[in-house]
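Each record in this resource describes a single protein on a pair of labelled lines. With that in mind, the following record should read easily:

===
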Amino acid sequence: MKKLISLFLLLLPLTGLAAEAQVLSNLEFYNAIYRGEDEWHFTPSGKAALSFRSSKNNNVQGHTEIEFYPMDLYGTAMSDVPALFVKRAYVRTRFPGFRMTLGKTRLAWGQGTVFNAGDVVFGSLNPVLDLTETELRSDTAWLTSINVPLGNFAFIEGVVLPPAIEVGDDGITMAGLDKTSIGGRGYFLAGGIKFEGGYLYKGQTKVNGDAVGHRPYISLQGNIGPDWYLSSSLAIPTEQQKSEGMAGGDWEESWILSLGFFHMQEINRNNTLNLRLETLCFPYQNWEDQDMRDTIYGIYLYPEISWTTGSGTYYSVQSVISPLDASAMITAGAGWNIYQGLFLVGYATFLAGDEDATFAWDRSDVWDISRDNINGMYFMTGLRYKF
């Protein structure tokens, strides 16, 4: 992988010479203080992203984005740290009657910011995530998609995702054709409600908590004052996937529902109040506390409130709540837009719950060095700069 990245970096300047490109940088660097297993730690964290976008061509769009993580305390980055990897690299082109996307990118299937049962491509389900990120779900994968517009707010789309290439000590390992994922969706507007439905045969998982098999889904979006959105999906694994240990249980256990509400209210012209509430429900999973850390419970909640002022400051409180084992992760944040593109930000994160809950205040007695970094609380402050 290091050789591939080095080769890519060598070729990248040449692509910039061949065509005019818009270069964007997103730098986020923080000083972080957190409680570990038995002592406090001070460390740098954040990420640096360099993005190249093509310009001056309405029919072809190219985008390459490279990210570097000096430290990933939450374990939610797409690689171990410190890590440099290609997050996006794709070409999107317009043909008469359809558009094609080819490369590594993200497709937005379903509705939901944190919990989205309709996202059968990437699986926006894991309740353990970094709430300090500006984009809470941003996983990408290599894919080819064909999008056929059918009118205003209407289209059909097909997608195929090749199996991931495993790189280990023995070299490159190629997965079989049965690990390919392929499917499609339709999207249209009727009676003020946006309808979306589709199907994906998923031969391989893309993120933690994802499920393989036949993956039908449906998603609706409307407005009743606040915006509302509802999604549902399930996974029916094949007998071969069961025999290979890629999936277990019946389809009922994989049935997922997600429901969300979002409202933006302008106050005194220059100030904005944002309110969001999302719910993730597994009807056939556990509805009682199992006293086990990795249990999938029947319901999770994501409330969020943020306040943005006309003077360039903002304040936010976000939380992921697991009510059935009485635990939660709460993140309070504040920021100040000092100059154009430059923000001074600060966050404080607290975990609340027993040591065997989804979120725990103190795991010192059950510490797992392979997965635990933060023990109950975490503070960070730093700068974000886009230019």
About this structure: Confidence is low (pLDDT under 50) at residues 1-11, 13-18. Residues 252 and 284 are 6 Å apart (CA to CA).
